[in-house]
Each structure stands twice: as structure tokens, then as C-alpha cells.
Amino acid sequence: MLVSEIIEKVEIPHEAGQWVELRKLSFTALEEAGKVRQRKGVADVREMGGDVFEAIMRSSKKQTDGEEGQERDRVESYDWETLIGKAVVGWSYDKKPTPASIRDLDSRTARWLVTEICDRNPLEDEEAAKNV
Asked: Which DSSP string corresponds to 22-36?
């Protein structure tokens, strides 16, 4: 399926009367958002040093257990700015969706957007798991 023309208008649940238009993402767009997140993660690890990184990994392993942890992992596996920039084609805000206006989103709306985008663009193994 070709996805670039598949666009859905979605109401923002915590902002009465506000909406966003989301484009279905291609596999390359998802891959790019994942790679950007990985590059940032590698840079963060280099900055921290080995001992701090090991402590964080031990702590994060405990936090990713269960359904809530899996949801957090899925949302955190992408660079939010890249993902939102690729998916959002329009919104009801006064400013157009640009890199600057995307960076200006509050954290609640950004997290909601990334979750919505992930829900509408499941990876193949996620889709298969839902159908079992």
C-alpha cells in the first residue's frame, strides 16, 4: 500500500475544538525517526560515560516491564520532532506546522501526538501480535 496520501483528521482530546491532520507514515519515515533517536541516544551515552550508562540501563530494564513499559518503549524509540514533522500535515493552531512550531508544542500534546502516530503506524510485528 502507498501511504503518502492517507491523511486523518484527529481531535486533540485535551484541547477542546483543536485538531491535527496526520499522514500515515512510510516505512522509511519511521526508520528515519528511529535512527535519529538512536544517534541522539549514542551521543548521550558518550557524554555520560560507561558507569552512568550501566546504572541507567539497569534502572530502565526494571521500568520497561509490563504493558505500560512497552508503551513507553514504543513512544521513546522514535525522535519525537522527526516523527511529528513527518506525520503532521495540518492543525488548527494559528501557526503552520513547521520545525519551529513543532518544537513549541507543550509536552502533553507532543506525547499525545507521538502516541497517536505510533498507534496509526504499527510495525509489522506489532500488527501481527494484535491479530493473534
From this structure: EEPPPHHHHHHHHHH
